[in-house]
Amino acid sequence: METIRGKVSHNLDLTDFYARLANYDRITLDLGTGDGKFAFCHADNFPNHFVIGVDSCRENLHEHSRAKLPNLLYIIASAQSLPQELRGLVSHITINFPWGSLLESLLNGDDRLLRGLESVAGSSAALDVRLNGGALAEQGWSLEYGAERIFENLTSAGWNLHKPEMLDSHVLRSFPSTWAKRLAFGRDPRAIYLSGCL
Q1: Residue 129 in contact with residue 150, Cβ under 8 Å?
Q2: What pLDDT sits at residue 189?
Q3: Segment 68-112, tens digit of pLDDT
Q4: Into how many domains does the chain fold?
Q5: Tens of pLDDT along 96-105?
Q6: Residue 10 near residue 81, CB atoms below 8 Å
Q7: Could you give the CA distance from residue 189 to residue 180 in angstroms, rounded to a whole number?
Q8: Above 90 in pLDDT, residue 25?
Q9: Helices 143-156 & 100-108, crossing angle to 10 degrees?
């Protein structure tokens, strides 16, 4: 499993990986972590949680992956091919403002992504998904219809989701991610929040 700190990547074996996870009662997976800010803030604010940020683009992770928090790890992997080492370990999955192939997979109900989410999720794992209008518009969807399609795909895959919630610019300004700040001050400061569990 390829991990990264700064500009240096490292192959972490299963023994070392499990050693890192020891003594943590909750494992959070931030999928499509981007520059890793949300994962960093979550690990910093919740030292009893082990936080794993996953993204396929290593260049974006150089800054936040330098952090020497014992409960933070960044993995280089695609959302459609999650590492087998994560199987059944994750108690909380977050997907914040996805775009590109991750958003496309959510919209299309890509089995590789949906099966991967199910495989890494532990018993009664929680799921939080935040979607923004600009990224959905690039895929040819309105915010409302795109969120509805993703809601349907996730519920069909076995997730029990609550009613979608609208997020306004005030909420986005206070959310600890780089993309949320850009959205809050952008031309379309709207987002939808989906949450639930297996």
Answers
A1: yes
A2: 84
A3: 999 999 999 999 999 999 999 999 999 999 999 999 999 999 999
A4: 1
A5: 999 999 999 9
A6: no
A7: 9
A8: no
A9: 60
Cα distance between residue 30 and residue 43, in whole Å: 11
Residue 156: give its domain's CATH number.
Answer: 3.40.50.150
Q: From the centroid of its chain, how far is CA 11?
A: 21
Cα 186-189-193 angle, rounded to 5 deg: 140
Give percent above pLDDT 90 in the chain: 92
> What are the residue ranges of helices labelled H in 29-109?
37-45, 100-108
Number of other CB atoms surrounding residue 148 within 10 Å: 14
- Give residue 117's identity as a one-letter amino acid code: L
| Token pair recorded at residue 119 | 């495989």
Mean pLDDT of the chain: 95
Angle between helices 111-120 and 100-108 (to 10 degrees): 90
Residue in the structure block whose two tokens are 């690990």: 43
Domain of 125?
A: 2-197
Mean predicted confidence (pLDDT) in 42-49: 97
CA distance 152 to 160: 10
Cα separation, 149 vs 71, whole angstroms = 34
